[in-house]
Amino acid sequence: MVAATPSRGLKAGIFLPPFHANEDDPLILMERDFELMQWLDKLGYAEAWIGEHHSGGFEIYSDPCLFIATAAERTKHIRLGTGVVSLPYHHPLIMAERIVQLDYQTRGRAMFGFGPGMLPSDARMLGIEPDVQRDRMADAVEIIMQLLAGETVSKTTDWYTMNDARLQLRPFTNPRPHIAVTSTVTSNGATLAGRHGLGMLCVAAGTAQGADTLSTNWGVANAEAAKQGRSMDRANLRIMAPFHLAETKEKAMANCRKGFAAYEQYGFSVRPEGPAAIGLASLEAINESGRGVIGTPDEALAVLENFWAKSGGFGTILMLAHDWADWEATQKSYELFARYVLPKFNERNAWREQSMAWLRANREENSAKGKAAVAKFNARTQPKSDAAE
Q1: Those residues with Cβ within 8 angstroms of residue 325's Cβ, 6 or more apart along the chain or in another chain
Q2: Which residues contact 190 (CB under 8 A, 6 or more apart)?
């Protein structure tokens, strides 16, 4: 007996910062993002993560929980996550309460991604020094996990006070909603993931350094998890990379030129080295790196294979939602990925192909038997002619 070809089971989703050119109407941009959630839901995408930012005018959502609450009402299946909440900006008790409430409102479809905060300008407005943000994130994760477990917490720090704090609602999801932490080039996020049993959002996989640390940080997470008597699940390992697909590479590049120029302007406003700091120096550089694709479905498939080999396997590919192409081309890109890239990578059609190959290999025999059966039936059922009588 020949064994059936297994499926790798990779899921697909998006990471929506969002990136939106400052010249567009925010009302229209928000509505289009909700339409994007509906389109992804229709195409069978597994999840979408929505970011939190407070400055620059390009990444316009200050509260991803509010976005998720509306998106959940307009979708049926797709899971929606905060990608990510900047924990140093929020009181841990309030954040834990929002998690539980959104867990109920979405009937368990909400997920929660945490990070230290990416834009120093956000921290500056809040009077937070960047060098304390990672420590504050680790502290907040610890407190939130305790609260979600039903514990009562009393603690005073230089940025919050908690006196007999506890949640008044048990989470809708048992034992708690899915929680993930950002993992970049440092081991900080990986350590927290292993310590608390969290998923990992590898948002720097599009950079050379971030890609090189994929397996290293996964090892760190597993080592930390082992200390706690648990193991990590690769299904909860997510890799983010930039994609835009079209029927030809030339068309994909042309689709993105104008939008990338607007994004490039934003990138140079954030840091002197511009988008190159996060592996997005140019559209050509994305393709040359092998860590993203502005091109065809076949090229996207090759990138997935590279990430799979580099990481040792992961659960979800998150496409960076960059808004470089117009709306119609963006929809088409997600459709091409869903129709041709993910099924082929997962060998979802392998049994269909095997079935057709078997059918073709036996067509002469099967056809001959079918014709013989018809002839035999006709000979038995047709009335005899006068000549025969």
Answers
A1: 244, 255, 256, 259, 333
A2: 183, 200, 217, 218, 220, 221, 224
Q: How buried is 32 (Cβ within 10 angstroms: 0-12 exposed, 13-18 middle, 19+ buried)?
A: middle
Q: Kindly report whether the peptide bond that precedes residue 272 is cis, defined as omega within 30 degrees of 0.
A: no
User: Does 175 sit behind a cis peptide bond, omega within 30 degrees of 0 on the bond before it?
Assistant: yes
* Predicted local confidence at residue 227, as pLDDT: 97
**Cβ 319 vs Cβ 15: under 8 Å:** yes
How far apart, in whole angstroms, are the C-alpha atoms of residue 282 and residue 296?
17
pLDDT tens figures, 25-43:
999 999 999 999 999 999 9
The pair of structure tokens assigned to 356 is 């057709």
Cβ-contact 32, 327 below 8 angstroms:
yes
The pTM assigned to this predicted structure is 0.94
List phi, psi (to 5°) of 182.
-70, 140
133-165 burial, b at 16+ Cβ within 10 Å, e below that, comes to bbebbbbbbbbbbbbbeeeebeeeeebbebeeb
CA neighbor of 86 nearest in space, from 206, 185, 186, 182: 182
Whose CA is closest to 250, among 219, 284, 220?
284
